[in-house]
Sequence to fold (337 residues):
Amino acid sequence: MRTELMPVTAASIALAASLMKEGELVAFPTETVYGLGADALNGKAVLGIFAAKGRPADNPLIAHICDKADLAPLVTWVDARTRALMDAFWPGPLTLVLPRSRAVPNEVCAGLSTVAVRMPSHPAARMLIRELGKPIAAPSANRSGKPSPTTAQHVYEDMNGRIPLILDGGPCGVGVESTVLDLTGETPVLLRPGGVTAEMLREYLPRLRVHNAVLHPLASGQEARSPGMKYKHYAPQAAVTIVRGTPQQIAARYDASVAAGKKTAILCAGAAPYGERRTFALGSDAGEMASRLFAALRAMDEEGIEVAFAEETPTEGMGLALTNRLLRAAGFCVEEG
Ligand code: TXA
Ligand code: MG
Fold:
């Protein structure tokens, strides 16, 4: 299959929607990461997403809507608490997990009794959903196990030959996936941190619990509240170690690795303390660092980096999403300097 890359225009949106009406898959930009979309009400088309990504069949997808009123048909209830969250954070990078209605095909929810729904703020995503006239089921548009794509070029690297069309809307602003919030129980649970922070949610949900798997490996036998928690994510080729220590200690680790003949890099906020060493400097605050992390992990692979040492990152605000993704890239390998 030939994969076309097209800038977002009224014509390319119309083409994308017509392909999706025929059951095809289209990659499109959102404010978080690029999504790989199919008509969410077409179970067969949705199965194609799992094949194109190499995604395990038990990992459910997010249904994307363009209007708050589109939520009600997909779920069995919308209570006042849910409405307050929608009013505060939609459109935007917040995904709500709610009990699903019978309108949602099994394929979207991977057989669960719940459905994850989000209303993106990216104009291209909203135009596409509106043009299709149905919700779009979409995971991130990477091959399973690769970092999520934050540019159309990343999508092309992973999906060339597998899908007919990629809509190019430039780099994604947030750069990490949406916050996933489970509202099905009495206590709301943050399953995946993202562009809407735990602090922002706590203003509406004082009892919010952050799931243990956000910062810790799932203990063997522990149930995954979100199937995505079980899978190895964001893993570059390099062995990544998060070093709890000073820049001097990180530099010493780097030098020892280079002396051992390994192609080595440092993942850091700013390059300043590391001199001539190969660094991937992510930025000055956690939000900027999060938005650049996935591109840096892909660039490390392209360069053939075998070993990487990362500075420890904060866990407040956007730091929680940054640290969550970095821990996964490192396979939870954290060492003292
Ligand atoms: O920002 C995003 O959320 C991007 C863009 C494209 O919207 N999408 C995205 O999708 O990151 P995906 O499939 O890569 O991640 C969805 C996450 C997975 O960890 C999945 O396990 C979880 O949401 N999830 C989906 N449905 C769920 C459900 N019913 N209950 C619990 N977790 C669910
Ligand atoms: Mg994903």
Summary: The longest strand covers residues 94-99. The chain is about 30% helix and 20% strand.
